[in-house]
Predict the structure.
Amino acid sequence: MTAVLQAGRRYAAPVLLLGVLGACGETDPPTVQLRFEYREGDTLRYEYEASGTYTIPDTAAPGRPSQRTYERAMRIEELAQDVTPSGNYRLAVTYYLAPDTAAQSEPPAPVTILIEMTPQGRILDVTGVETARPIFGDIDFESYFEQAQPVFPDRPLKVGDSWTQEVKVVGAGSEPVVTSSTYVLKALSREDGEPVATIVFDGEIYLPLGHDAARGESQLAEERIRVHGTFTFAHERGIMRYVQTSARATVSRLAVGNGQTTRRDLHIEEESMMRLVEE
């Protein structure tokens, strides 16, 4: 499973809503200060659904690629294991994959990744990744998570404000790539009677998938994902309610051997949704 299937997973952030009165007595637009907020023992549960299409090159008939559709569902649980003395968060994120009903197989074992991050959202460490490779593939997990979630600005934001973040990705055997994502605070409103902040995003994710040498060939692989979507926060509770994401990805494999270079591209289009499960 490629990483596009998880784009959009970690857009969870509380906000502090501040109404400021100007010197002239008129009400200025309300602002929000975006920060992650966890207390030790906090647990958030989400449902995740995705559907998409693979376009696979046909090596026997290069001009006639084949397509396959897929659907995928899972439960995601975030547990705040610790808040460090410096105020950073240590989270255990567990993925419960649904069984393959067509094959009548047993449900896969849950997969847990341990993440340490700052309240601003910057990833400091990712561990426990070996069991997660069936979901994400052979990727740099720290780089992936930093690209796949916002690192919030230090300033308060009002409706219409935006920020851009860049991440430098370095892969073995390739030049560094800088990815860029833009976020816009679209609205402050109420949803199901609860105050929420709505943010739209558009960005890119670059994932070097490793370097392999076999049978006299050198193989390089990478995945490039273009992603956009919307997420909402219940800012009085400080939790994310809903994420909707559209993604287009290209997985490229380049083989060099015997004086020849061969490239194969796999294209993926996906729609995904993740929502908070209220208890």
Observations:
- The longest strand covers residues 194-214.
- Residues 4-9, 11-24 have pLDDT under 50 and may be disordered.
